[in-house]
Task: inverse folding
């Protein structure tokens, strides 16, 4: 697992360096350990985010497709099973006791069971999933718009980010998490999905709930979501970079 993460990080940095024409490709890992190089990447990422947000309307939709366009195979990558006793217990009960909580900087913290979420107005969307590893697939996702839940919990004025805490952990026991700007929670295509192609999510694809964040790359689409925490800053969560993969060197803003 550690070797795989290091390999993916090197591949990511190679692409970043090539695009920016900063340095030769050799020695990327040494650069990531330097005191100055991460700050350059961070500034470049912030500039990319500002430019893209300036050019793209806030509610611009990712392209949606027809039923005929749905891929015959939708790969499951990353963690494909949390592998914990707690998760196995929920799976054995068909997730009847699974709940997702939204808390942190909100006026009215709330929790919903999976059954309660399925009773709320849903959205179905056929979109393309673009993976940082280079593959794409089209699938039909059904779930509850995250903005609807946010309107119920009423974020406080100082809430700036939503952090998604998940049920899966890596081989070293590090919990998976992801985050997005609070404003992106209200995008029409940002949903907590519980179905793929008309069927309940299976374990490899993130059962029972996964984030669909259609205008960003696939590693932002957190699986096995248990809790959403609204915060003012990402500092102090994980390594402070906004997500499990971001802590390995991936960009926080992965807009496409």
Result:
């Amino acid at each position: 697992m550690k070797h795989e993460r290091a390999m993916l990080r090197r591949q990511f940095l190679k692409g970043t360096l090539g695009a920016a024409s900063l340095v030769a490709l050799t020695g990327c890992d040494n650069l990531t350990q330097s005191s100055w190089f991460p700050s350059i990447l961070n500034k470049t990422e912030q500039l990319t985010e500002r430019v893209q947000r300036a050019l793209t309307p806030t509610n611009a939709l990712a392209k949606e497709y027809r039923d005929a366009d749905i891929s015959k195979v939708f790969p499951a990558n990353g963690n494909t099973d949390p592998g914990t006793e707690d998760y196995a217990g929920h799976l054995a009960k068909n997730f009847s006791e699974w709940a997702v909580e939204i808390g942190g900087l909100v006026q009215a913290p709330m929790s919903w069971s999976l059954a309660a979420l399925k009773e709320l107005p849903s959205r179905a969307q056929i979109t393309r999933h673009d993976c940082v590893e280079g593959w794409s697939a089209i699938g039909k996702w059904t779930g509850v718009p995250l903005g609807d839940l946010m309107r119920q919990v009423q974020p406080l004025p100082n809430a700036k980010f939503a952090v998604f805490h998940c049920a899966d952990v890596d081989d070293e026991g590090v919990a998976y998490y992801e985050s997005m700007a609070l404003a992106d929670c209200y995008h029409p295509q940002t949903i907590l999905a519980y179905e793929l192609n008309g069927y309940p999510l299976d374990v490899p694809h993130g059962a029972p709930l996964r984030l669909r964040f259609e205008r960003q790359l696939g590693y932002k689409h957190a699986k096995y979501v248990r809790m959403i925490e609204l915060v003012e800053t990402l500092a102090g969560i994980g390594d402070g970079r906004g997500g499990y993969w971001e802590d390995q060197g991936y960009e926080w803003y992965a807009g496409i």
Notes: The first helix runs from residue 2 to 20. The radius of gyration is 18 Å. The chain is about 25% helix and 25% strand. The chain has a mean pLDDT of 85.
